[in-house]
Design goal:
Layout: H1 2-10, H2 14-28, H3 37-54, H4 59-66, H5 69-72, H6 83-86, H7 89-106, H8 112-126, H9 137-151, H10 156-162
Helix pairs in contact: 1-4, 2-3, 3-4, 7-8, 8-10
């Protein structure tokens, strides 16, 4: 998300950059809805207003944000207290590195479920070292629900086995 937002700002004239940035953050920050589809819907509504305001003056910058808007709202499905940290790339890149190290040893995974299970196992282990990512019981429950949704209510023993 951060790289995409920086790319959009680079397409805006210097005179408009500060106002563009402020309006852009208004789209993604201070969401009043709880995590999930309602938060994504609120962000979409905000983006419509942002688009109406800026598209005429800076169509390339707005297109940069609109063309892959779905990927810019993925973080809104996670616990609200994690939003500011998980939309940055450092945390994600570090986690991807740990996942690559695990999959390199395995070589080839037997299926998509095994891959998702491995990724969640790595995330579970990596989260202990994350700064600024407090795991409250509510946040853990939301992550468990998200994992169940992705795995199709698969039992936890497969997750544990992949670790």
């Amino acid at each position: 998300m951060i790289h995409r937002l920086r790319n959009a700002v680079a397409k805006v004239s210097k005179a408009d950059q500060d106002a563009f940035k402020a309006d852009r953050w208004e789209v993604f920050d201070k969401i009043s809805e709880p995590p999930g589809e309602l938060a994504v819907k609120e962000t979409c509504q905000r983006m419509d207003g942002f688009r109406a305001q800026w598209e005429r003056a800076h169509p390339g910058a707005v297109a940069c944000l609109v063309e892959d808007f779905e990927s810019l709202t993925v973080h809104l499905r996670f616990p609200k207290e994690h939003w500011r940290r998980c939309r940055h790339t450092n945390l994600i890149e570090r986690t991807f590195g740990a996942t690559r190290r695990r999959t390199k040893v395995i070589g080839r995974l037997p299926g998509e479920r095994t891959c998702v299970a491995l990724v969640f196992a790595v995330l579970d282990r990596q989260r202990k070292g994350w700064r600024g990512m407090t795991m409250t019981p509510r946040a853990l429950r939301l992550l468990q629900d998200l994992r169940s949704e992705l795995l199709g209510d698969q039992p936890d023993d497969i997750i544990t086995a992949a670790a």
